[in-house]
Amino acid sequence: MGQRKAPKDGDRKVGRRALLIGGTVAAAGSAVLARDELARLWWRVPGVEKPRKEGEVDHAGARWVAASEANWRMADRPDDYGIDMVIIHVTQGSFDSAVKVFQDPEHGAAAHYIVRKDGHVTQMIRELDVAYHAGNRGYNERSVGIEHEGFVDRPQDLTDEMYAASARLTARICARYDIPVDREHIIGHVEVPGTDHTDPGEHWDWDRYMKLVRKARTAPA
């Protein structure tokens, strides 16, 4: 993968997987850490990355369309950053326009997924990686972002197909990372600290959406 510009969601004084290898070896040698914790620490060692396949998706049935590398940064989530949140967005435009801007390196933002009005799901960033979607570095690192085609002032854009497909997507994300299905962990962009966005807007039916997510969460995968 080619070089990318410095991350636009802020810089850390220490690298994202910075870990003193000697400390890890010592911990392993003294058997202080359990096997699962050692596996987690392994992915934090600089230069170690999880295997990836080009075009691979995390959600069954999603279509892969890659976002610009300038709009996200590589990670090894949930081993370097735990995932405990899903953030709901509305694109304020068409599906095609959202794809276009997420592929634009000058845009500076992109979400992991876009859900179209007809329920089609496109994935543009792997869940492993940190998407610049929330406008808050900490929330970017701990969340998966889902965009929905439409405008916040057009309730007709929020179709039955969109709600159903998005709920299945969110339910599967929650299952993968053991995220509680509640409004503390499934939030709107407007609820992110420091944001100036208003999406998903007053027409987004949270009661309906959460019922659909809970139903999908308990359904067979």
Can you tell me the overall shape?
A: globular
- Give the strand line-up of the largest sheet: 1-5-4-7-3-8
Order of helices and strands: HHEEEHEEEHEHEH
Q: Strand percentage, roughly?
A: 5-15%
* Cα-atom radius of gyration: 18 Å
The number of helices is 6
Largest sheet properties: 6 strands, mixed
Structural class: alpha/beta
Helical amount: 25-40%
| DSSP strand count | 8
The overall average pLDDT, rounded, is 85
How far apart are the termini?
33 Å
Uncertain stretches: 1-7, 10-33
Please give a handful of descriptors for the protein shown.
disordered N terminus, 221 residues, 8 strands, alpha/beta, six-stranded mixed β-sheet
Explain what this protein looks like in three dimensions:
The chain has 221 residues and is of the alpha/beta class. Helices cover 28% and strands 11% of the residues. The strands form two sheets. The chain has a six-stranded mixed β-sheet with strand order 1-5-4-7-3-8, with helices on both faces. The chain has a two-stranded antiparallel ribbon with strand order 2-6. Helix 5 (160-177) crosses helix 6. The two termini are 33 Å apart. 34% of the residues are buried.
